[in-house]
Structure of Phosphoesterase:
Amino acid sequence: MKAFIISDSHGLESELEKVIHRHREEVDILIHCGDSELEEGHSALKGVNVVKGNCDFGSDFPDDLFEKVQGVGIYVTHGHLYNVKMTHVPLSYRAEEKAAQIACFGHSHVAGAFVENGVIYINPGSIRLPRNREEKTYCICEYHKTKATVTYYDYDGKIVTDMVYHFEVN
């Protein structure tokens, strides 16, 4: 299973389309973790699973979603409803409730991935306003049987070499 994950594009349109188009044919699912600031049905979000962020006013996007892709449960939320800037505990409870193998979130604009209690947590960062790094990032997660790799890319599609994570999963 291969998932494209992006978040916090904050109104970018052509830039978002460009990044998604670059990977659309090589992944099984496209995910936007909120704060797109675009309307549902916008061409930049065609075929993308999108959740509502705290800056997505008036949107009809759901607060969260759960998808099974090739048997892998993926939970997606923006993170503001789970206080992810302070702790990951409420998010971990929700991921556990959903029986997710992967939990995707944004909100903090801080790119990173980690495993806790067998769940891979992924924040793709931001392609508009990154925090803690210069690179404007998004990522791709490849999940196969007992191994997962989360690879971060900068806006131009170059791998961010110090942000490639390898995980052993159950």
Summary: DSSP finds two helices and eleven strands in the chain. The mean pLDDT is 96.
